[in-house]
From TrEMBL:
Keywords: Membrane, Transmembrane, Transmembrane helix. The lineage of its organism: Bacteria, Pseudomonadati, Pseudomonadota, Alphaproteobacteria, Rhodospirillales. Gene3D superfamilies: 4.10.1060.50. This is Zinc ribbon domain-containing protein. Residues 75-97 are annotated as: Disordered.
Length: 189
C-alpha cells in the first residue's frame, strides 16, 4: 500500500499540468492542476494508511512478544503454603485507628475546632460538656444514661457506637448513638 501510495505521488508530481498553446509557450491548465492535486491527496492518504497499518502491526507484534515473555516468566504454580511468607499480623491493626475526629471536637456554639482534651472553647469560651467516651472493655449494659430529649433510660445492648436504650418513658428500646448519651450511673462490674 505504501509502494502504491509512493508510486501515485510520483506519478502525480510528474504529471504535466501545462498545455501547449501552439505558439510555443505553455500555459498551466487549471483542470489538470486540480487533477494533480487530487492525485497527490489520494496517494498521500494511501501512503499514510499504509504507514499506520505497518505501525499497528509492529505494536501488535511487540505486545505479542511481551505477552509470551510475561507468560514464560510467570510461576507455573503457587509455592506450597509452608513456603509462602506469613501474613503480616500487626497487633496495632486490630486497634481502632486514631482519626482527626477522635483528636478534636467542635464547639457547639461557634463550631471552632478544639482538641479533644480541651475543656473550654478557645474562641468563644464556651465550656465543653464532658461526656464519657465508651471504650472497649467498659461495662455499658445495665448502665443508666440520659439523652437530651428522651430522658433517662437503661442500656440493654451495645453494638459499636450504637446502644439499645430502654428509656423510662418508652416501652420499646431505642437504638441511640453513644455520643448523645451521658452516663447517670455506670453499671458495676
Ligand atoms: Zn466556641
Amino acid at each position: 500500500m505504501i509502494l502504491l501510495g509512493l508510486f501515485g505521488l510520483l506519478a502525480a508530481l510528474a504529471m504535466d499540468t501545462s498545455v501547449s498553446t501552439g505558439i510555443g509557450s505553455r500555459v498551466e491548465n487549471i483542470g489538470l492542476l486540480s487533477r494533480q492535486s487530487n492525485g497527490l491527496i489520494g496517494s498521500g492518504l494511501l501512503f499514510m494508511t499504509g504507514c499506520i497499518l505497518i505501525g499497528l502491526a509492529a505494536v501488535r507484534d511487540a505486545v505479542d512478544r511481551l505477552g509470551t515473555t510475561i507468560a514464560a516468566n510467570a510461576p507455573r504454580t503457587l509455592p506450597p503454603v509452608s513456603q509462602r511468607p506469613a501474613p503480616i499480623s500487626d497487633s496495632s491493626d486490630t486497634q481502632p485507628r486514631a482519626t482527626i475526629a477522635d483528636a478534636t471536637k467542635t464547639c457547639s456554639k461557634c463550631y471552632a475546632l478544639a482538641s479533644a482534651a480541651a475543656t473550654k472553647c478557645m474562641r468563644c469560651g464556651t465550656e465543653f460538656q464532658v461526656r464519657p467516651i465508651p471504650k472497649n472493655g467498659d461495662v455499658l449494659v445495665g448502665s443508666r444514661v440520659r439523652h437530651p430529649s428522651f430522658g433517662e433510660g437503661e442500656i440493654e445492648a451495645v453494638d459499636g457506637d450504637t446502644a439499645m436504650v430502654r428509656f423510662d418513658k418508652r416501652e420499646k428500646p431505642e437504638p441511640m448513638n453513644m455520643s448523645y448519651l451521658t452516663f447517670v450511673e455506670k453499671a458495676a462490674l
